Amino acid sequence: ERRASGLAPHQKAFVAAVMKEIETYGQARFLLADDVGLGKTVQLGMAAELIALLADRPVLVLAAKNLLPQWQGELWQMLAAPSARWEKGRWIAEDGSVWPGPVTNCPRRIGIFPTSLITAGSDVAEPLLEMRFACVVLDEAHRARKSRTLGREPQPNNLLDFMQRLARRT
């Protein structure tokens, strides 16, 4: 059952700010770092859904593997936004229907993909770098960082490197 409570004022303000940036500059980059329980998923989901509708391109959500079902559930329950999550080489839609790969054939406008495949350096994620996205959401963005090695210049970890390359396609 979908909750029809609407967005809270702080959530509306965030979505409005994102849309204003896109309208003004043609793009937007935001870091959302609210406390737990303030509805970051629904804020990002609403903004991503609006962006996808306006841009007519897909949205990619990158999140920890264990959070993929939560993302998908909240998008569906709170926003009635269909999505598919990548799991074990296939896409699984919000209604439980299954589409075998490739990763570039997501059956929904919003695809939710595990960051663990990126951090592990899996080739499965590489085709995503050839696609164009209306919006990319990186959950737990603090995991994309430079690694420090004594006596060497800090280097981006796999997730940060992937995000830097993906930013050019978004």
Set down the secondary structure blueprint.
Elements: H1 9-25, H2 40-55, E1 59-63, H3 68-79, E2 84-87, E3 90-93, E4 98-100, E5 110-114, H4 115-119, E6 135-138, E7 146-147, E8 155-156, H5 158-167
Question: What does the model show?
Answer:
With 170 residues, the protein is of the alpha/beta class. 35% of the residues lie in helices and 17% in strands. The protein is built from five helices and eight strands; from the N terminus they run ααβαββββαβββα. The strands form two sheets. It has a six-stranded mixed β-sheet with strand order 4-3-2-5-1-6. Strands 7-8 form a two-stranded antiparallel ribbon. Helix 1 packs parallel to helix 2 (40-55) and helix 2 (40-55) packs across helix 3. The longest helix has 17 residues, at 9-25.
Features:
170 residues, alpha/beta, six-stranded mixed beta sheet, two-stranded antiparallel ribbon, 17% strand, globular
Biggest sheet layout: 6 strands, mixed
Query: What pattern of helices and strands is seen along the backbone?
Result: HHEHEEEEHEEEH
Low-confidence stretches: none
| Average pLDDT number | 88
Radius of gyration: 16 Å
Q: Count the strands?
A: 8
Helix/strand/pairing category: alpha/beta
Relative strand content: 15-25%
Helix run count: 5
In which order are the strands of the major sheet placed? 4-3-2-5-1-6
Share of residues in helices = 25-40%
- End-to-end separation in angstroms reads 33 Å
Shape field: globular
